[in-house]
Write a structure and sequence with these properties.
By secondary structure, the protein is of the alpha/beta class. It contains 14 helices and 13 strands.
């Protein structure tokens, strides 16, 4: 098949970007031809065998025709804090014209059999204007955007009406998508996310040497790790309040590492200072290769989200053998089982207790790390995901040909 993938964000720095990049790679491995359309404000790394068609933003030197503003997001991105609602009418028109041109040119030259768009949003609306079969993955932030910004609903409604299939990434995501767009009930399928097992796997690292690279002192403390966008719904502030509890009760026993960037960075650093945290360190946005080492060097991964449609970062941590403490708001409970972690309320007290519980579980079962990694590999490798995705594509094409 010839597959055209489209995403609202670059292939690094967001869950849907990671998803798009991984789907593209594994489709190529399976022998398909793939082209990806996405925004950029710098030159991206190439992905072997994958064609790129880029829309450049923020006056990027890579393109004389770059749009003079940054690419918009639903919440935040390591390279943009502009949201869709920040765009003026003129900027929104420029955005749609640029992507419509990229999609039209890709269809004319690449001639895809099927289009796979991320988010029930603006770019899926633009894809709907063409006569090519197309599917949409609802990633959750699009549904949040639909609730928050009524001015974009007409675009999303048209996309939902026109698409051949909607892929939901968790049970919770599926129910919210169908409640938001009742017209998709007969064409929505559940397909939980997969992770890239070529990037995420356990590695042996010197914990003290690795942490020293990030300016984090280490003297045999338990390492509690958070990685993600520093935005409200990710709940890093909830973790900081839980951190105060274990720093107060068990001084010198824990170190908390916050990896990520976003519009709440300054506020969270100030909160950590106000709470008197002395063993909590912010290390900024980190690449996936760096995260693999951090996951492998930590004791517990915490994802304290107020809402999480799936939580791919938790799965990537598990793939490196790291047990997870997750909140029960959204799709995390679909795959974070009692064997690999804990699911609890998005509350400092509950989070504190779950972290202590999982530290205790680790000490009782030294082999646990390998069991967690095996669980992720056996159930959620992108290899398995793409096999099911292929079948969705084939079903759509078969139905179009009836």
């Amino acid at each position: 098949m010839r597959v055209l993938l489209i995403n609202h964000f670059p292939l690094e720095g967001s869950g849907s970007g990671t998803y798009t990049r991984d789907v593209a790679h594994y489709l190529v491995v399976k022998g398909h031809e793939v082209c990806v359309i996405f925004p950029e404000n710098e030159k991206p790394d190439e992905l072997a065998g994958v064609h790129y068609r880029l829309v450049y933003f923020n006056g990027c030197s890579e393109s004389a025709s770059a749009l003079p503003f940054n690419f918009p997001c639903f919440t935040t991105h390591p390279r943009s804090t502009t949201t869709f609602s920040d765009l003026s009418k003129h900027e929104l028109d420029e955005y749609c014209v640029a992507f419509d041109k990229a999609i039209t040119e890709a269809i004319d030259s690449f001639k895809p059999d099927i289009i796979h768009v991320q988010h029930i949003w603006l770019l899926s609306y633009l894809a709907s204007k063409h006569q090519v079969p197309f599917v949409i993955t609802a990633h959750g932030t699009d549904l949040m955007g639909y609730e928050k910004w009524p001015q974009f609903r007409e675009f999303a409604d048209t996309a939902a009406d026109s698409c051949d299939r909607v892929i939901a990434i968790s049970w919770d995501n599926l129910h919210i998508a169908m409640d938001t767009f009742p017209q998709i009930k007969s064409k929505t399928v559940l397909l939980p996310n997969g992770y890239n097992d070529e990037i995420f796997y356990p590695v042996k690292v010197s914990r003290s040497a690795l942490l020293a690279e990030y300016g984090v002192p280490y003297e045999e403390e338990k390492i509690v790790l958070f990685a993600g966008k520093l935005t409200h719904f990710k709940g890093a502030d909830v973790l900081l309040h839980a951190t105060r509890k274990y720093e107060s009760l068990y001084p010198g026993a824990f170190t908390t590492v916050i990896a990520g960037a976003g519009k709440e960075d300054t506020m969270l650093r100030q909160l950590a200072e106000e709470l008197g945290l002395t063993s909590t360190y912010f290390i900024g946005h980190r690449s996936q290769a760096e995260l693999r080492e951090l996951y492998s060097a930590s004791d517990i991964f915490v994802i304290p989200s107020r809402y999480e449609a799936f939580g791919l970062v938790a799965l990537e941590a598990m793939a490196c053998g790291l047990p997870v403490v997750a909140t029960n708001n959204g799709g995390l409970s679909d795959f974070v089982t009692s064997e690999v972690g804990s699911v609890t309320d998005c509350d400092p007290d509950a989070l504190f207790k779950a972290i202590l519980k999982e530290i205790d579980n680790n000490e009782k079962a030294p082999e646990r790390s390998s069991l967690v990694a095996t669980y992720a590999l056996d159930h959620y490798s992108m290899v398995h995901y793409v096999e099911e995705l292929e079948q969705i594509y084939l079903d759509v094409l078969a139905n179009r040909n009836l």
